[in-house]
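Our preliminary data section would be incomplete without showing what the modeling component actually yields. Below, a chain of 268 amino acids is followed by its predicted structure, encoded as tokens that our downstream tools consume directly.
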Amino acid sequence: MKSLDEFSIKDRRRIRCVLTDIDDTLTTEGRLTAAAYTALEALQNHGLLVVAVTGRPAGWCDHIARMWPVDAVVGENGAFYFRYDEKQRKLLKRFLLNAEDRAANRRRLEALRTDILSQVPGADVASDQSYREADLAIDFCEDVDPLPWSEVERIVDLFNAAGATAKVSSIHVNGWFGTYDKLTMTRILMDECFGLDLDRDKASFVFVGDSPNDAPMFAFFPHAVGVANLVQFEDRLDAPPTYVTHEPSGAGFVALVNVLIEACDRDV
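Predicted structure:
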């Protein structure tokens, strides 16, 4: 991974959209700082699209899409996107799977939940599970004592053995039935809402994240960025980002925003 300092002014001037993870990328020790929130707003004020791409649940994403300075939210690791249409004064919701399939999958996940918690002592269902539509989140360090990595891998193995997809964030193992991921729904969102071809236009995007479940985005975007705390997962990444910030978490996000805005201001 290159230092963020090596992100050239020429490449930064091409950026038109910032895609960002939330937990431990925007947030710092579980909290959204004023500086990180202000940085989101600053991006929009400079004419950039801003999209949160997160593993967090539909209930949270409803609030984020309505209330935060973002243009849309991709949630539950790609299960849906939400976008607030200010002209219609309506929240637009686009799920990859229909309601019937989601309900059937939730029943399968409920059985899997019982199996995982019985086999991995110390793990628990994430505190935001009741707000989820499409996946099961198993907490391994957010509201429980941190589990050793061998137990995190055990959770992943149990999901996989049941035929589910499993991704590890900085706090949860998220599992779902389906082959989609963050990149899948981001591609759909950009086409349906903004008329952008992600494959053609990917050099005009930045994605910033911090954990293994961001690997599909790191692999796809030439200007992917990891905040400094990503290095704890470096040997567990299927694909690393091109750049890494000097600062961790929200401070790293702010540092990225500052260099992007510097490039915007040079264009004025």
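The mean pLDDT is 96. The CA atoms of residues 140 and 152 lie 7 Å apart. Preliminary results of this kind motivate Aim 1 of the renewal.
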